[in-house]
Amino acid sequence: MGKANGDGLLIDLSNHQTGTVATDAMKISVLASGSTGNTTYIETPTHKVLIDAGLSGKKIAGLMQQIGRDLNDVDSLFVTHEHTDHAKGVGVLARKYGINVYANEKTWDAINDKVGKIPLDQKFSLEAGEIQSLGDLDVQSFPVSHDAVDPQFYELHHDGKSFVVLTDTGYVSERMAGVIKNADAYLFECNHDMEMLRMGAYPWSLKQRILGDTGHLSNEDGANALMQVVGNNTKRIFLGHLSQENNMQSLAHLTVASMMQEHDFGVEHDFHIFDTEPDSATDLMTL
């Protein structure tokens, strides 16, 4: 297994000169986000990557077609953790499309038996706190609090722009908030509405897991965390990983928007909030 570049330091990549030509920009699409599967697409002029592959290869290929892109052009896949809704399609994508896969060692140990054989020259280790440089794209990993063996998420940097993917964590610590502060765009977890979860049909043990420090962010938790990290650079917020049983898209959107407005954040003025779908891609947007 290859070793990712990076010395384990969290460095500030926010002061690069920003390009003015759209073709040189970073583009993003949340292909799918929800309890049934998650995958996000990011491209730069020289790289096309995915964060997670929690659906079948066929479904991910179809989602790519929705935004006019081809899985054959994707060169790298970064895995956040071993849960099926994030790792289901990892093996298929690696074998069929020759995509390089990055994950930390404990996550590799957890998914090796699930994803099938992947050629060794396509397997790379990237530990939390390290940065993988892919030429014009730097992928910075950071640890989160979730009930997986060693979960981590990612902030992607290109030409002075940054995009944070964070969809599975029980809470956002001050340290985490400091790492991901003032990104240009966020895909941020709003997993459940507290009352819907408490009143719903889930067994109490599962409710405790979701509500715990290694579970998932509620709509309110997501809003509070966003208010810690949103800055002047922030222009887009995608609300992700909504529970099909314990949330509604309109409720998540209303909760986050209203809470942020109450604290004088410029919702739909300084930045826009976008919904995501479990089976339909967002538009390909330029940062």
Automatic annotation (TrEMBL):
Residues 36-241 form the Metallo-beta-lactamase domain. Pfam families: Lactamase_B_2 (PF12706). Signal peptide: none annotated. InterPro entries: Metallo-B-lactamas, RibonucZ/Hydroxyglut_hydro, WalJ/YycJ, WalJ/YycJ-like. This is Metallo-beta-lactamase superfamily protein.
